[in-house]
Each structure stands twice: as structure tokens, then as C-alpha cells.
Amino acid sequence: MGTLSDDDTHVLLAAPYTLSEYYGYGSPITTSSSIVAALGTPGPGGVGDGREVADVTLVGVDVADGSPLWHTAVGQIDQCSAPARGVVLACWSARRVAFVDSVSGEAIGSADVDFDIDDVKTAGDDVFVSGTVLPPDGRDDVRTPVLTRGTVDDTDAVYRRDFESLGHYSYAQSFPVRGLTTVGTSNTLAGPAVTRVVDSATGESLFAYAAESSSPVSSNIVRAQNGVRAGLIGTEELLDRSGATVAGVAIPSSSALTYVGARGDDSRPLFLGDGAYDAETGAELWRNPDMIIRESGGPTSAVKAVVDQTIIVTSPDTRTITGIDVTTGERRWQTPWQDAYWVREGATDGNYYVFGDYTGMHAIRAADGAVVWSLPLPAGADPREVRVGGAAGRLSIAWRDQFTVYR
Predict the structure, then answer these.
(1) Quick one: CA dihedral 246, 249, 255, 261, positive or negative?
(2) Which run of H or of E encompasses 299?
(3) I need a labelling partner for 158 at 20 to 30 A (CA). Which of 8, 94, 285, 290 fits?
(4) CB-based burial, 94-131: b 16+ in 10 Å, e otherwise
């Protein structure tokens, strides 16, 4: 067992998203080549109160024995983002961003900006910073979306784009691996909303359309949703890079793109709603009702992981885990699983899917659905706080102020 800090006041923070407050549990940032923990001293308060953290120290963790490899102080930050490509970790607060080499721990740059940062992405040598800025008259009800592309030394070296705003609800979010950025503005939180799709390489607008929620789902296809704020996703369309509608998703669902084993490229179909769609053209490939979970708030994606050529889905109703063929959409196997409702997160090595639930951590073989091993949760662990995931090519489980890496 390794100890990451000699400071008894330090706790493991819930990286990468909750670094300015501590709610009683934590987890590390993992990449394909490193594990980075975020430590800080929380202010006064009880467990679960959201105690303020003034300064954060990043720590590189040796995957062999859990010992610290390096410590880098980054000051007060709100969150970090793992690199889309390369090794540069970006961490930011309201108007400051710091860059750290996730392997060596070297602080390789920082920048102050004149807008409120919403997101920072790094991809190789590229840095994309997005956020919003108040107009010159200081009105808080109209904010201008801002997008910059640059380097760790100069975050707007390539371009800065300030987009016209329709109202107080505005954002810019970059997806550098897909080469696209979405910029949204609205008169009110309930719409009407206009979304621009922007070429991330140049910062130039490709097209604009009316949508309450949108995101690039491949380098060629953008998903546009309307009716979201009514509690259900009313419609979902797939648009190409010219803004033309190429397909409609028959049964839209939420959380369709977040699953273990996602590659972030166009080598697999898009798993949206109850079907699969071609990542290049948006054409519907097949549909299978096992792909969604019907809940009171509307359909949600049942997809938990994609392992090799098998999509792994769960059903709380039938209490099963099911394997679906990526190419045909046909059911390959089905395994009874009492705790199917709680299956979440996890990791894959290309042959097995390892996941957590209320009882422990389990490995299921993607080829035939056989559960090959199970481990109980660590003593005293609250299953609501446990996170199972990959860590530098290995398996990790995190809870409270500690995490374990398995060989």
C-alpha cells in the first residue's frame, strides 16, 4: 500500500470534475499511460457538505506499488481534463488554466484569460479553451461564447472566435478528436436555441440550426435533439457537416455515447437510441429493443460497454446482462444478473468487461457472457461511492480516500 502525501490534512479529491470541493470521496485521473491523483485540504464542514478546497496538488502514482512519482502544486482549480491525445493534462479555475505533463509531472505552462472558462481540451500540441464573456456594458443576461485554439504557451495562438449571442444561455464545447465544436445560444433556458457547428481546426462556422441540445457523434455526424427540457427527448436527428439531415433516431435516449470501450473515432457504428448508425453517413444499420431501458423519465441507453465485436447491455426489468453483435444487432448471449440495475462504469481489456455493482466487482467474458470472477467490495466501502475503471492499462477501484490497482 502506498501513501501519496505526508500531509495528514490531505484527502483524495474526486477527479477530474470536483476539485474545488470535497464531498467525502475521491478518485484518480487515469490515462492510457499514467495515474494522477488530486490531493487537497478541505475546509470545515461535515461529510458530504461540499467543503471548499483552496489549493490542489497533483500526484503521479506508480502503478507497480502505489508510491508517488512526483508532486506538482497547481493552486485552486475547479476541474481537469485528461488529454484526448498525448500526455498534457489541463486543469482550470474560472479564468486560469494550468498544463501538466501527466507522465513526468512537469508544469509546462499556464495562462490567464479574459473570459469564464467552461472547458479545456488538449490533443497533442493543440489546446482548445472554451467559455463565455460578459459584454462591455456588464449585463449578466447576455454572454458571448468564446473559443480559442493555441498551445500551452499561447492559448489563442491559432485563433480566437467570439460568437454572437442570442441571450444569457450560451456555451462553446470543443471535440478536437472529431474536429468539430458546437456553439449554442438561447434567449432563455427553455429555448428557442440556435447551435452553430464550427470546424475546430479553423474556428470557422460550418452551419447553424435550431436545437436544444447537440453534440458531434463522429467527425462527420452531429446529433441534434429537441424537446429535451420537457423531460423527454422529443426528436433526435443526425446531420452531416453541411447541416443536412441524413437520418432520424426513431427512439431517442439519453446517455447514448458514454460507455466503456468507446474509441472516440469513427471505427465503430454510432449506438443511439435502440439502434446503430453508420459513423460516416449516418445511415441506420439495425435496431434492437435491448439497446434501451424504458424509465419514467424516458428511454435511456442500456449500453454499458463495447468489447471487441460485442455490445454489452443491461436490463433492470429482466435482471439480465446481454451481448449484442456489433455488426448485425443480433443477440449473442444473455446472462441472468440480479443486480443489473446497479451495473456501472468499469473497464475492458478487449476480451472481458469488468464492472461494479452493489455487491462487488465482476468480470464477464464478452465472447459468451460467462462471469469468470467476482470480488466483494472492500470492507466499509459504500457501493454508491465506489468507482471501477481502467488505470494505465490496469484495473482500478476507488472509494473514499483510497484506490487500489490490480495487476
Answers:
(1) negative
(2) strand 298-301
(3) 94
(4) eebbbbbbbbebeeebbbebebebbbbbbbeebbbbbb
Alpha-helix runs per DSSP H in 272-399: none
Residues 6+ apart with CB under 8 A from 387: 27, 345, 356, 397, 398, 399
- Distance in angstroms (rounded) separating the CA atoms of residues 398 and 14: 10
- 206, amino acid identity: L
d(CA 139, CA 80): 29
Give 64: exposed, middle or buried? Use CB within 10 Å, 0-12, 13-18, 19+.
exposed
What phi and psi values does residue 31 have, to the nearest 5 degrees?
-130, 180
Q: What angle do CA 66, 68, 74 make, to 5 degrees?
A: 130
Q: Determine the Cα–Cα distance for residues 189 and 1; give it in Å rounded to an integer.
A: 48
Spell out a b/e string for 333-367, using b for 16 or more CB atoms within 10 Å of the CB, else e: bbbebebbebbbbbbbeeebbbbbbeebbbbbbbe
Confidence of residue 313 (pLDDT cuts 50, 70, 90): very high
CB 131 within 8 A of CB 174: no
State how beta strands 35-42 and 96-101 pair: unpaired
CA distance 391 to 35: 6
- Rounded CA separation 47/227 (Å): 37
State pTM to two decimals: 0.86
Query: What residues have CB less than 8 Å from 108, skipping those under 6 apart?
Result: 88, 99, 100, 101, 152
Q: What would the pLDDT profile of 50-107 be if each residue is shown by its tens digit?
A: 899 999 999 999 888 888 999 999 999 999 998 767 789 999 999 999 999 999 999 9
The set of residues, in sequence order, having a beta carbon less than 8 Å from that of 42 and lying 6+ positions away, is 11, 21, 22, 51, 52, 53
Measure CA of the first residue to CA of the last residue in the chain; give whole Å: 14
